[in-house]
């Protein structure tokens, strides 16, 4: 039965000339350019999440994996400066400005969650020639112990994650690989058989070099204080991200570099593993080249496997899935993402001021906020966006009065306060944006269920 199948496939190659000619170019076609090694390496280092069967490596990818620079850095590959677009962080408590230490990890964590839209129904949003500002609100909180997927640093737990989707995807890949190996044996396509056998071997070596030491948050000590950190690519952008949550978590995720959970020392076996990886990569592409030269069915089987790995990485097991797995296991955090639009830069600034739990200082020796003035440090984050000037002082004064009087559109209880405020600042172009910002901040707090200055404030409100 198998003999007839082998003879039938050989006859197709002999009878239809273009089938054999296509086999001569497929394995070395531009398809290999879609094998994206950098994000795969990043997830290897971040989460230790490795699909060993998904290991076709291009020559360019081998240069990256075998680079002498990799062991010198504790940061994951795409978090290193210059390997991805940097992010700027503006601290809402002290006003400090710094580059986010793990920009690509932060991006992946955000992309892994679909945003819940908070509609802006203020009249300003219907104006003409608006400079609309996109604002993502990321509420970061600590996972409860019963919900955290604790992962011991063992090969089984790292290679087969606890997430049902990830585990099923890994098992599906293994089943397809075993089926392809069996088919290669039956149809006597020995070049493709050798190529497929090299896949898990190559994956195991890459994992041993780069994936066996996942990262975690540098500081895990809980604190009751919450903080707001504003993140963007630059000060003149129209896309902004507000991170809101426990101070320790935000500092560890955004400001401090992630730490390796295992030993930071390079194992002595790395020299041997690097040599072995060179041999395996050369073997992969020698087999691919051989299949192209013979113009046999080996070329189709190798091309199918490369295409399958590309598809799985792009759609079934993308890097964002690995980042989500990392949050649940090694980081122990969860994210709730919300999105809204503001009509102008001023409306954006007013929204963030009203959201910031540190906009007002605590009275000395008391647990009450001093609403007579804004905290000087907590307003410094605005400086790179809106410089100090007399006009800014007036705008801050108007914002303070509006927040203290709880000015809201359509609230009859505050009609007198609103009328006095409108009369005082009627000539200032930014007056409508102050109201818009405060209204949107109140709406965001309610819909996102954001805690106050401390997590204890939320517990008191629930009681």
Portion in beta strands: 5-15%
Which geometry do the CA atoms define? elongated
Q: Compute the average pLDDT.
A: 87
Please mark out the parts with pLDDT under 50 across 5 or more consecutive residues, or reply none. Answer: 459-463
Helix content class: 40-55%
Strands, count: 9
Q: Give the helix/strand class.
A: alpha+beta
Oligomer: single chain
Sheet with the most strands: spatial strand order = 2-1-6-7-4-9-3
What's the number of helices?
Answer: 17
User: Order of helices and strands, N to C?
Assistant: HHHHEEHEEHHHEEEHEHHHEHHHHH
N/C terminus separation = 75 Å
Radius of gyration: 28 Å
Largest sheet: 7 strands, mixed
Please, could you describe this protein's structure?
Strands 2-1-6-7-4-9-3 form a 7-stranded mixed β-sheet, sandwiched between helices. Helix 7 (164-187) packs antiparallel against helix 8 and helix 13 packs across helix 16 (431-448). The longest helix is centred in the middle third of the chain and has 25 residues, at 270-294. Strand 6 and strand 7 (239-246) form a beta hairpin. By secondary structure, it is α+β, with helices and mostly antiparallel strands. The chain is elongated and about 95 Å long. The chain has 17 helices and 9 strands. Residues 459-463 have low confidence and may be disordered.
């Amino acid at each position: 039965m198998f003999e007839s199948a082998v003879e039938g496939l050989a006859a197709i190659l002999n009878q239809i000339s273009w089938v054999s000619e296509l086999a001569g170019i497929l394995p070395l076609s531009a398809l290999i350019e879609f094998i994206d090694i950098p994000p795969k390496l990043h997830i290897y280092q971040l989460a230790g999440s490795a699909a060993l069967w998904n290991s076709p490596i291009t020559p360019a990818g081998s240069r990256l994996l075998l680079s002498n620079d990799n062991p010198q850095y504790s940061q994951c590959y795409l978090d290193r400066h210059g390997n991805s677009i940097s992010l700027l962080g503006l601290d809402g408590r002290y006003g400090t400005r710094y580059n986010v230490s793990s920009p690509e990890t932060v991006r992946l964590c955000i992309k892994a969650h679909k945003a819940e839209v908070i509609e802006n129904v203020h009249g300003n949003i219907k104006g003409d020639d608006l400079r609309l500002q996109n604002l993502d609100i990321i509420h970061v909180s600590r996972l409860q112990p019963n919900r955290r997927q604790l992962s011991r640093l063992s090969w089984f737990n790292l290679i087969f994650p606890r997430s049902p989707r990830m585990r099923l995807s890994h098992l599906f890949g293994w089943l397809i690989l075993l089926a392809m190996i069996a088919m290669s044996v039956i149809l006597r396509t020995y070049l493709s058989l050798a190529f497929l056998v090299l896949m898990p071997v190559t994956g195991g070596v890459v994992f041993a070099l780069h994936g066996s030491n996942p990262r975690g948050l540098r500081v895990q000590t809980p604190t009751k204080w919450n903080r707001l950190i504003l993140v963007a690519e630059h000060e003149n952008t129209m896309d902004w991200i507000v991170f809101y949550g426990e101070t320790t978590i935000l500092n560890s995720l955004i400001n401090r570099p992630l730490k390796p959970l295992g030993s930071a020392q390079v194992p002595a076996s790395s020299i041997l593993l690097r040599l072995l990886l060179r041999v395996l990569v050369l073997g992969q592409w020698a087999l691919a080249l051989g299949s192209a030269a013979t113009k046999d069915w080996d070329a189709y089987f190798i091309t199918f496997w490369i295409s399958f790995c590309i598809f799985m990485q792009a759609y079934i097991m993308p890097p964002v899935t690995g980042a989500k797995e990392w949050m649940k296991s090694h980081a122990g955090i969860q994210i709730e993402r919300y999105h809204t639009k503001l009509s102008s830069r001023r409306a954006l600034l007013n929204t963030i001021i009203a959201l910031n739990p540190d906009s007002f200082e605590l009275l000395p020796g008391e647990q009450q906020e001093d609403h007579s003035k804004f905290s000087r440090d907590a307003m410094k984050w605005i400086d790179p966006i809106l410089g100090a000037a007399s006009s800014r002082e007036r705008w801050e004064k108007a914002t303070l009065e509006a927040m203290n009087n709880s000015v809201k559109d359509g609230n009859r209880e505050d009609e007198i306060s609103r009328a006095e405020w409108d009369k005082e600042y009627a000539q200032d172009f930014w007056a409508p944006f102050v109201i818009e910002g405060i209204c949107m901040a109140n709406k965001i707090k309610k819909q996102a269920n954001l805690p106050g200055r401390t997590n204890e404030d939320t517990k008191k409100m629930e009681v």
